[in-house]
Specification:
Helix content: 40-55%
Strand content: 15-25%
Structural class: alpha/beta
Shape: globular
Radius of gyration: 30 Å
Length: about 650
């Protein structure tokens, strides 16, 4: 079948399958009849008209903002908050749970002011609160929280200032809890509370024996760095009893880890924590709240498995299993059902953000034409490699592949020792890559492909150079091999006839994405389309709302991207509700302590010295300084 026939048969369904958008999209993302990625926050009970990301890109471009740009969809955050809270309430109703649910959003997951503000706004109808782990986060939370019925959970290492802030929050009517992470914190909390004349709400973080799989398995277990072991919990209870403050102990908390892929691990942890809760009630503590921490995973690859970038449960199943596990332990001990708290952050904000970027250039591994015969003056090793190419058949693929590697390595060694010329080495490279292309074409006809040849396509993958920084916008892809869905956002009715890895524009060999989602494994290349002259090619990285913005660094001084907030209406129109310009060159230089005024003076002096030396004219000096100013004000990323 030729390429034209394949193109004619390519459909939207094939693009949906190859990029897995129906599996990881959560119902929010789809592909239109025009072959464009669509977003629809109203896929459930409130049907709406999806909006094309290409229409949003046009709107962003018309407003003068360049790629890369981070889109934040207000509706998706609203929808995820509703989904989590409604799922817990439904599970409680169906199981006759007598307590209630109150979620809190951990600010550390995405601390951007706009994100925290919208979480509190959309969560207010559910009394969805915040979790903080530092003084800056506590101050941010107090500035954004308006709902006094929502919980404010204070985790982390706490000094006097931190504790005083939380105690003042209590005085002002906030439902604030101090979670004891270290044995020495109890006395400090009680001392400060006595001084300020307020009774604290105390919780205790426990170290579970239960552990979870995934990237963050060390968050749980006996060797986790935060929390009290069972002996320390009893010592804390005794200390509270001694000071007649046991009635301040109201909450048990644990943290199993972020992105827990296996529901069995979640159930085991809930049961263990619930047992500790029951025992604290028996000790005489009033209790009332059971904080199950984070861990609710996002299915990044759509495989619905216990793979580290997936999960083998839905949000509805998570809620039902959690409530059932809590009920079972409480009912067996005749203890009242507590208020269940979860600190789910990733599941709330991951869908909220989409990173869009354009492709700047491509380096293709071409299939070189080679001569039918070589001159006798060509070194023997190169002639042997050429013979391997000419003798290649479907029956001897493995043998010829091994021989080609052998001769290629010998030829490179000969070049390094000065025995062949650069031109001769170039000829050998052409023959070798021509051979690899032929092997790839022939291997698809085999019933059983040899192991060495299975992923051979990766060796000839193109490199698509993209206008973004991995380290700034999706650092988890580099740091912990986190998988994110990445795909073209248009041309999806065309066959993606190239396989590529994505390189960013940092000067770093790690600045790339070469691991992509796949329902069965991890792909090493991404199917993409050939670039067209004078036409931008846009890709999107999805589910990047959790952790990526605040973990990003200034590698090569690439700063924050442009950010655009979008609200979608049910009729398919959309409104850009806010825009934040990305960092300028001037911004990032100031972050790393450059004195911009001094820099400008240095540039002026350097240019003036060049005038005095006759290297440039006074007019050129003015143009040089103007270029410097334009550069300082410019976007750190590639601009048109």
């Amino acid at each position: 079948m030729n390429k034209v026939e394949l193109l004619g048969r390519w459909t939207r369904t094939k693009s949906e399958e190859i990029y897995g958008i129906k599996s990881w999209g959560g119902g929010y993302f789809s592909i239109s009849d025009k072959g464009e990625v669509m977003v629809d926050p109203f896929f459930g009970d409130q049907p709406g008209v999806p909006v094309s990301l290409m229409d949003i890109i046009s709107g962003v471009r018309e407003r003068g903002l360049d790629m890369p740009v981070l889109l934040r969809f207000e509706n998706l955050l609203d929808a995820q908050i509703s989904l989590l809270n409604d799922s817990f309430r439904k599970a409680m109703q169906e199981l006759n749970y007598c307590g209630s649910y109150q979620g809190v959003y951990p600010i550390k997951v995405n601390q951007q002011q706009q994100v925290v503000q919208e979480v509190t706004r959309f969560g207010q109808r559910y009394h969805h609160g915040l979790e903080v782990g530092s003084k800056p986060e506590l101050i941010a939370a107090l500035s954004e929280m308006k709902d006094k019925q929502a919980c404010l959970i204070c985790n982390g290492y706490k000094d006097e200032e931190f504790i005083d802030l939380g105690l003042y929050a209590l005085k002002m009517g906030f439902q604030c809890f101090f979670v004891v992470e270290f044995p020495g914190e109890v006395d400090l909390i009680l001392d400060r509370a006595e001084r300020l004349g307020v009774k604290p709400n105390i919780g205790v973080r426990i170290k579970l024996s239960s552990k979870a799989g995934g990237h963050w398995t060390e968050s749980g277990g006996d060797r986790s760095i935060f929390g009290l072991n069972m002996t320390q919990v009893i010592e804390m209870v005794d200390a509270l009893k001694e000071r007649k403050m046991l009635d301040s102990l109201k909450l048990v908390h644990y943290h199993l880890g972020s992105q827990v892929p296996n529901i069995r691990d979640i159930r085991a942890a809930v049961q263990e924590a619930a047992r500790v809760y029951v025992e604290l009630v028996k000790e005489g503590a009033p209790m009332g709240w059971l904080d199950l921490g984070g861990g609710l995973a996002v299915d990044y690859d759509g495989s619905k498995t216990n793979f580290s970038s997936s999960r083998n449960y839905s949000i509805q199943e998570y809620c039902a299993d959690v409530i059932e596990a809590v009920m079972t332990v409480m009912d067996n001990s005749s203890v009242d059902h507590p208020v269940v708290i979860t600190e789910s952050g990733r599941a709330l904000v991951a869908y909220y953000s989409v990173l869009l970027f354009n492709v700047l250039d491509v380096a293709e591994f071409e299939r070189y034409e080679i001569p039918g015969q070589l001159d006798e003056s060509v070194p023997e090793q190169i002639r042997n490699l050429h013979e391997v190419n000419s003798l290649l058949t479907q029956k001897n693929l493995q043998e010829c592949y091994n021989d080609a590697l052998y001769y290629r390595d010998n030829i490179r060694d000969m070049f390094n020792h000065g025995h062949i010329s650069l031109r001769e080495r170039s000829l050998a490279e052409k023959i070798f890559w021509n051979t690899i292309h032929k092997i790839i074409e022939l291997k698809v006809r085999l019933k059983r492909i040899p192991g060495d040849l299975v992923d051979l396509e990766n060796a000839i993958a193109d490199i698509y150079y993209c206008n973004f920084s991995v380290f700034q916008s999706i650092p988890d892809s580099w740091a912990i091999d986190q998988l994110f869905p990445v795909m073209p956002v248009h041309r999806l009715l065309e066959m993606p006839d190239h396989n590529a890895i994505l390189a960013d524009i940092t000067c770093d060999c790690d600045g790339k994405i070469d691991r992509f989602i796949d329902p069965h494994d991890v792909r090493r290349t991404l199917p993409v389309h050939a670039l067209k002259d004078n036409s931008d090619y846009y890709l999107g990285a999805f589910l990047v709302g959790a952790y990526q913005e605040t973990l990003g660094d200034l590698h090569n001084l690439f700063g924050d991207t442009n950010v655009v907030s979008v609200r979608i209406e049910t009729d398919g129109t959309f409104e850009i509700t806010g825009e934040i310009e990305g960092d300028s060159v001037e911004d990032v230089l100031s972050y790393v302590e450059y004195d911009l005024r001094a820099m400008r003076n240095e540039f002026r002096q350097t240019a003036e010295e060049a005038v005095r030396s006759g290297l440039i004219s006074p007019r050129e000096r003015r143009e040089v300084l103007s270029s410097i100013e334009d550069g300082l004000r410019g976007y750190t990323y590639y601009e048109r």
